[in-house]
Amino acid sequence: MTTTTPAPAIRPAAPSRPRPHAPESGPWVGRPVDRRDGPTKTTGTATFSAEYQLPDLAHGWLVHAPIARARITAIDDAAARAHPGVLTVLSHLNTPRLKPSPARPSLLDMSTMVGGTRVDYLGTDEVFFDGQPVAVVVAESLEAAQYAASLVQVDYAPLPATIDFAAAAAAGRATPVKQSLGMPTLVGSVGDADAALGRAAHVVDLHFTTPGHNHNALEPHATTAVWDGDRVTVWDATQGIDWFRKHLALRFDVPVESVRVIAPFVGGGFGGKGSVWAGTLLTVLAARVTGRPVRMALSREAVNRVVGGRTPTRQRVALGADADGRLTSVIHEAVLRNSPVGGGPEQVVGASGDLYASPHVRLVTSMVTLDLVPNTFMRAPGESTGSFGLESAVDQLAHDLGVDPLELRLRNEPETSALHHRAFSHRRIRELLHVGAEAFGWADRTPGGRRDGSQLVGHGLALAYHPAWEFPANVTLLLRRDGTALLRCGFQEMGMGTATVQAQVVADALGIPFDAVHVDYGDSDLPIAPNAGGSTQSASIAAAVLRSAAKLRRAVSQLHQRPGESLAQTLTRVGRDVEVSVGSDVGVGAAATSVRFIATTLLNQRRWVRAASGAHFCEVRVDADTGEVRVTRWVGAFDIGTVLNAKTAASQLRGGIVMGLGLALTEETVVDGRTGRIMNAGLAEYHVPTHADVPHIDIHLLDDPDPTMPLGVLGAGEVGITGVGAAIANAVFDATGRRVTDLPLTLDRVAP
Amino acid sequence: MLVVNDAPTTLDLEPRVSLLDALREHLHLTGTKKGCNQGACGACTVLVDGRRVLACLTLAMQVEGREVTTIEGVGPHPLQAAFVRRDGLQCGYCTPGQICSAIGMVAEHRHGAASVVTDDVTTTPDLTPEEIRERMSGNLCRCGAYNGIVEAIVDTAPAMAEMAPALTPVPA
Ligand code: FES
Ligand code: FES
After folding, report:
1. Are strands A259-262 and A231-236 parallel, antiparallel or unpaired?
2. pLDDT class for B169, splitting at 50, 70, 90?
């Protein structure tokens, strides 16, 4: 394992051998070491954002609009105010306005993109979506706040609203989006895909739908805030400490240095905690107005109503192939939704330009605008739903041709990406198919399924694919004369095992034991870390760690380091500690980092396609009478580049697959088409997978570094969920002969 | 008056306070988590007289005079170490509930409780992974750490059975 950034050269696509994962000596990177935050979490001592004890703490509770579009005509809060323990009821009638969200988000300052909506909460009488907070009750106790919120009477004058996604899409109200520079692929065309489809020997032309989803991280969004003059400290369940800090400074019109955001532990995010939603803003506001520390832990229902979820999709995937099954045309069209006050498109069609060879490709994305809480990123935005369409269609083509779906994929393995003719930095899909098929016993299955008592057994396969990104990260690294090191970086621990894997990276880079490395994180007082999103955090921070270690080595070498002496030995001998920093949080340094980031991102995008990939193999048992689908076996083979920690990486991939089981079988945010109200805003009605739904998931990792990414890491957080919907739908097709093109695969859709 | 983690505790609360909020907001025992507050997720699971109970669906008043054990009071327990070794957690928010639930589940099993996947309810089945999955299905993990959780329970089940308290019959 090298400890410097690999040279950006394309390596020949030689087959790689899976490496064993538990070396007892040698590099720390790759070893399946236990996550460091484990013991605090198994003993209940890890503190989450609703759990900080402050003297005089008051509690907030939201009052939600029960209507999609309206103007507030009156608010009667007398009964609420009269309730014992209530401190105040905040609404647009009595609350100082926040500064507006930036009108035009800019890539140069990513914090401008982080406002979940553009609604001027408690600053406007206008309602833009059902669930929008229109008042906040602050009280001495949680119980008083919650009960008093039910006493607030709000009158509304309704306005016309567009709510129904399917109806709006069918009515032709979708507007095509344009491709913007540096963003994932939403639109693109090469050749003449429609003409090629018309000439093709075999054609599959299918329409798919996927519903909206909610993240439903197990920890509901919660914020605790306390002001001291013009300075505020905010404990928040956030995926992006720095962006939240800057956004809060902007909205509350205080200098960035006056805002401190603390979030060492976040109870799951999956994108839902990547933007600043109403709960965070209104807690900070309530604390400012009341002069008291305020905590607002959102109810599960409130999380679903004020935090956006995944957009529903309608897709068309049309594939044309020649007599041998070689693709001649790939068309992928997607309709998504946003809202007048936020939300945006996601890369549903993106992978269709990369996954297979085809001379003709056409990708289109369009949007309808609905009066609902804006959509937002959720684990593998776009790829998770788009892969359901593409990989189902490929499976259908294999069936129509009478070819093994694995073989069909091998036949269509591209040399360069079909859409942009760009080189792949690293492409291991053939190996993944072989490794996965062998572990699963794919060749031994009975194609077309078999019957076992009252169950129909089927097998399915689909590819997983997720682009790799890299963001700037700032760190400081201190090596002490006693041989211990301290890495400081303001990321949060949300389940990825970031502190653990970065300690492994530091240990190797400085040649010291893993246990000698301490990592400080979870606070905006630390150097800026990138948002945890897009599976970028590990690679991005690792890049900064490697740069800081190189800097530190140079610094130590100037201290008359003797030949054969380790860094720590030199420091012990000269009696010094050395600290270096990488990246600057402020001023010219910060601006330079942004510019460099954009330039590198654009350049890299033009040079090559970088992505994590995988192959899912699964077995399902379908009840022949009821259509109930049970997933009974799973093998996933993945190329995530270098494996930093075999244990936490496998967990992340399994976690993605489990969320994919939900996407395939049970998850659906149901919106009342008349009112815009989410009808299943709770875990009793929105069904996420539980123990009994999840079989053992067998994970295989190639552990083959990507030559263009820091440390060779491609990211593991999102690739796992991609392709899962299709793998299960393909297995259901194998078992039952029914091609279900609408998710989730509920009994009514699967049953005979 | 109740006993929390072996400590006799007196609380003066209004009647609408749940056991969960009593623990988290009044006793500052925040290891017990609130994921839904409606009995759907299991994050708030604690042990009352050795049985697993959803603290969000229990009023604090209902446990007057009873023994409550939270994650802060179960350890050091071999299951905690097994969770770390088997990576039965990611974000860790469901973890205290999973651990308390598993301890209660093994006690139930030891006292002969059957589950819906038990073929012959006149016998007590082995705690196979299938039985564990069924019996643990009231505890959601959105991070999807289920494989590691089941492995940790399999590893520790014999030790947990030895430690399991005698359960008194459920009060009518
Ligand atoms: S918080 Fe009690 S079951 Fe979810
Ligand atoms: S570890 Fe995150 S919910 Fe279970």
Report:
1. parallel
2. low
Query: Where does B90-168 have alpha helices with state H?
Result: 95-110, 129-135, 146-163
pLDDT category, A5, cuts 50, 70, 90? very low
Compute the C-alpha angle A15/A20/A26, nearest 5°: 115
The answer to whether residue A374 is domain-embedded is no
For B160, list phi and psi in degrees, rounded to 5.
Answer: -65, -35
Q: Whose CA is nearest to atom 3 of ligand 1?
A: B39
Within this chain, do residues A444 and A491 fall inside the same structural domain, yes or no? no
Please name each of the domains of chain B with its CATH number: 2-73 (3.10.20.30), 75-163 (1.10.150.120)
Pick from A41, A142, A692: CB nearest B95? A41
DSSP element (H, E) containing A581: strand A578-582
Identify the band that residue A515 occupies on the pLDDT scale cut at 50, 70 and 90.
very high
Q: What is the chain B residue with the closest CA to A685? A: B40
B62 CA to chain A: closest CA distance, Å?
Answer: 17
ipTM of the prediction: 0.96
Helix (H, G, I), strand (E, B) or coil at A103: coil
Which chain A residues are within 8 Å of B72, Cβ to Cβ?
43-45
Q: State the CATH number of the domain containing residue A567.
A: 3.30.365.10
pTM of the model: 0.95
Which residues in B lie closer than 8 A to residue A694 (C-beta atoms)? 133, 144, 146-147
- Quote the minimal CA–CA distance from B82 to chain A in Å: 10
Q: Is residue A675 part of a domain?
A: yes
Paired strand residues for A523: A262
Residue-wise pLDDT for A616-651, tens only, equals 999 999 999 999 999 999 999 999 999 999 999 999
Contact A258, A249 (CB under 8 A): yes
Which position has the token pair 């990547």? A274
Inform me whether the pLDDT recorded for B52 exceeds 60. Answer: yes
Nearest-Cα distance to chain B for A729, in Å, is 20
Distance CA A637, CA A652 (A): 13
**Cβ(B142) – ligand 2 distance below 6 Å:** yes
Q: Cβ B93–A218 below 8 Å, yes or no?
A: yes
Domain span at residue A679 reads 422-470+602-752
The two structure tokens encoding residue A333: 């069209």
Q: Looking at A511-645, list the stretches that DSSP marks H as alpha helix, in order from N- to C-terminal side.
A: 537-557, 567-574, 587-607
Judge whether A120 lies within some domain: no
Least confident of A604-618, A672-686, A727-741, B30-44: A604-618
Note the pLDDT tens digit of each residue in A162-209: 999 999 999 988 999 999 877 889 999 999 999 999 999 999 999 999
Q: Which of A395, A565, A549, A536 is nearest to A470 (CA)?
A: A536
Confidence band, pLDDT 50/70/90 cuts, at residue A592: confident
Tell me if the bond preceding B76 is cis, omega within 30° of 0.
Answer: yes
Question: Which atom, in ligand 1's list, is nearest to the CA of B41?
Answer: 4
Tokens found for residue A177: 């989006």
Residues of chain B positioned with their CB less than 8 A from the CB of A50: 30, 34
In a domain? residue A138: no
A667 belongs to the catalytic site: no
The tally of domains found in chain A comes to 2
Cβ-proximal residues to A576 (8 Å cutoff; 6+ apart), any chain: A481, A559
8 Å CB contact of A51 and B24: yes
